[in-house]
Amino acid sequence: MRSAPFTLLLSAFLCAAGCSDSGDGNGDETTGSGGATGGTTSGGTTSGSGGGATTGSGAGATTGSGAGATTGSGDPTSATSGATSGSGGGATTGSGTGGEGTGGSDGTGGGASARVPAASASTLREAGEKANPPLLIGAAISGGGLGNNDYKRVASTEHNYVTAENEMKWDSLEPSAGNFSWGSADNIVNWARQNNMKVKGHTLVWHSQLPNWMSSMTGKANVEAAMRRHITQVMGHFKDRLDHWDVVNEAVQTDSDTGVGNPRMRPTVFYNQIGQNYIDLAFQIAREQDPKAKLYYNDYSIDARNDKVEFVYNMIKGMVDRGVPIDGVGFQMHIGPPNNEATGADVAANFKRFTDLGLEVLISEMDINRCGGVVTADEQLAYYHDIVAACFKEPKCTAITFWGINDGRSWLNSWSGALCNGQSSQSLLFNDQYGKKETYNRVMNALLGK
Ligand code: XIL
């Protein structure tokens, strides 16, 4: 039930201030299944702008089950058997073992044009790790959840990527000006690392969960200095442990939280005092702190084809054109009230526009809310499968993070715009007893290319 006027009105009313306060593969191989050109074992790596074979007859992946630079951007110089000067050359769908790979002649974009699924997997994490290129499978983790053994077991067996649900937001980390409090964030980061999970820092600059001393600050120089201090201190503290960051979160708003109507910059303290340039500046400061970290812009209701995603696209394109150091865009993927509904086709079309800018895309906070009967059970299953499949099929979609582990702990249950009023949003992959739901099966199928 997409775009019901009821949903629009209700979410506009309830959530006006942002509920979420919440070789372009031209180097395709020509010799069949063994001919992946920019093989991860032999050619492409993960950064740079080349990565495939250009003319190689010896450019096949040697052990490949598919292959190709993960982000379409290999470093030609580090290839061991890939060609050395390529600026293209993604694998297409190769799944053989060390074919000849005679193609890869003239690509310009690099990167695989399809991701090859694992033959089988018993966890989501395994399905993501065995895919080629691999896909991070994430969850929002809360300090409270880590007190529960079932929670910890499901979180660590099914996922290899962590976002702290609240513990790395400004009000947690810098509750008073210049005084930082690391304990609860460190607990999550250390637990993740003990379980061989990567962590994405969430989030450096956001209007919500921002302490009063910061949201009420005036003066361009003051706000700029406070933003610089926050980014510098936070990234510095986690420097050796984190290399993915949501740098700016939810900088754009529309009249409805479904992403419809009058898209514009959100009038945050950063925007009001510094001006539009605050976003470029935040990314530049973050890049100064860590030359190698992945730096992301993150937003909600940019999943459907709506006013908001158009605006965000233009904003991000401007940043890319100006050379601002951004690596990717996180699509929160909160589906259902109060946010947008998007089909797999919507998501795939939006992803393509951003990957065409040379960026990664991520699903960063996925849940599908059943409250209010706006999304039916069947629609939820179809959305879970089709949206995850859209990411899986796009090699530059590098991660899927679910916003929580089990229904009982979902933030939507008590979120004002979500129509749940304390009832379960039934929005996730595991039930209250941590059992797998049908939603889990649909996600698994999509991760196995089914
Ligand atoms: C949510 C948390 O899940 C809640 O516990 C908290 O009360 C509010 O924030 N967009 C984001 C996330 O970027 O940080 C938000 O997380 C959900 C929407």
Describe the structure.
By secondary structure, the chain is an alpha/beta fold. It has 13 helices and 11 strands. The strands form 2 sheets. It has an 8-stranded parallel β-barrel with strand order 1-2-3-4-7-8-10-11, surrounded by 5 helices. Strand 9, helix 11 and strand 10 form a beta-alpha-beta unit. Helix 7 runs parallel beside helix 9. It is globular. The N terminus is likely disordered.
Q: Could you tell me the radius of gyration in angstroms?
A: 21 Å
Structural class from helices and strands? alpha/beta
What is the count of helical runs?
A: 13
Biggest pleated-sheet summary:
8 strands, parallel, barrel
- Taken in chain order, the helices and strands follow as HHEHEHHEHHEEEHHEHEEHEHEH
Ends distance: 25 Å
Helix content: 25-40%
Q: What spatial form do the alpha-carbon principal axes imply?
A: globular
How much of the polypeptide forms β-strand, as a percent range?
5-15%
In this entry the ligands are: (3S,4R)-3-hydroxy-2-oxopiperidin-4-yl beta-D-xylopyranoside
How many β strands by DSSP?
11
What is the average per-residue confidence, as pLDDT, rounded to a whole number? 82
Uncertain ranges = 3-110
**Sheet with the most strands: spatial strand order:** 1-2-3-4-7-8-10-11
Short summary of the structure?
31% of the residues lie in helices and 11% in strands. It is α/β, with parallel strands linked by helices. An eight-stranded parallel β-barrel has the order 1-2-3-4-7-8-10-11, surrounded by five helices.
